[in-house]
Amino acid sequence: MGLANFGVTLDVCHSLMAGETPAAAATLALREGRLFGVHLNDGYGAADDGLMVGSVRPWELLDLLLALRRGDYAGTLYFDTFPVREDPVREGAANIAAVRRWEAVLDGIDAAELEEAQAAHDALRIEAIVRSAEGGDG
User: Read out DSSP for 10-67?
Assistant: First the structure.
């Protein structure tokens, strides 16, 4: 479009509903310098569930946070969840805690080692790297 104010707000549930991988969608927008916001939530993919962040698809959340980190995203993260039976303040705190927990996992990963494992398509090694950063036995 060539307009400075034209960009993307990525909504995780909407991305899932479209059959996308949120991290891949974010990477495309980041590559063009057009990722303006990220609505973090979770869902099963068939509907805009608006569930707590990382409650259904924690690995997709980790993948998205990694893509945002790799793309030097410095924009806004929003929580677009729908607390129906849950206390909204507690759900907001849980969303923040989930992002912080996964960011800490990313902090514990050797980026070069992970990139090497990804380039080799070595799923078992990737799993071990992530599990080790989580504090598991890897």
Answer: EEHHHHHHTT--HHHHHHHHHHTT-EEEEEE-B--SSS---BPTTSS-HHHHHHHHHH
What global pTM score does this model have? 0.92
Q: What's the maximum distance between 2 C-alpha atoms anywhere in the chain?
A: 49
DSSP 72: T
For 62-108, what is each residue's pLDDT tens digit?
Answer: 999 999 999 999 999 999 999 999 999 999 999 999 999 999 999 99
Please provide residue 56's backbone torsions phi and psi, each rounded to the nearest 5 degrees: -115, -40
* Spatial strand order in the sheet of 8-11: 8-11, 35-40, 76-79
> According to the 3-state scheme, what is the secondary structure of 51-67?
ECCCCCCHHHHHHHHHH
**Is residue 52 a contact partner of residue 91, using CB atoms and an 8 Å limit?**
yes
The enclosing H or E element of 101 equals: helix 88-107
- The pLDDT tens digits of the residues spanning 39-57 come to 999 999 999 999 999 999 9
Distance CA 96, CA 75 (A): 16
